[in-house]
Design brief:
Helices cover about 25% and strands about 30% of the residues. By secondary structure, it is α+β, with helices and mostly antiparallel strands. The chain has a single domain, classed as 2-Layer Sandwich (Alpha-Beta Plaits), CATH 3.30.70.1060. It starts with a strand and ends in an 8-residue tail after the last strand. The relative contact order is 0.33.
């Protein structure tokens, strides 16, 4: 069994949801994660904040950002265990972030420490 990262991308990070909508999305997200955990396939996950974010670039240049007003932002990530990329994709299809037009979930296999896929 392999591990896959599910990277949750928001097309427009400048849109701010109401506290009520955030509560609804958080419950949906917890229910989604709970369904994966019930199958013993949840490894870990977290949301990501924009406040205080920094970007380290070439020659160790540090800048503020990324900012919520850029076109696409990374809102969170989750690691799941799956028999195949297709199973990981099925988990991704249930992600509540996909309710937002233009939002995506990128599915990437995590490299094993021994270098074998």
């Amino acid at each position: 069994m392999n591990e896959y990262a599910l990277l949750m991308r928001h097309e427009d990070g400048s849109k701010v949801a109401s506290p009520e909508q955030m509560q609804i999305w958080m419950k949906q997200t917890m229910d989604w994660i709970g369904g994966i955990a019930a199958q013993n396939k949840f490894v870990s996950g977290t949301g990501l904040l924009f406040d205080g974010a920094k970007v380290v670039g070439h020659k160790n240049v540090v800048t503020n950002g990324p900012f919520g007003d850029i076109k696409e932002t990374l809102g969170g990530l989750m690691i799941v265990k799956a028999e195949s990329v297709d199973e990981a994709i099925e988990f991704a299809k249930g992600c509540p972030v996909l309710q937002g037009a233009g939002n995506t979930v990128e599915v990437r296999q995590i490299a094993k420490s021994d270098g074998v896929h």
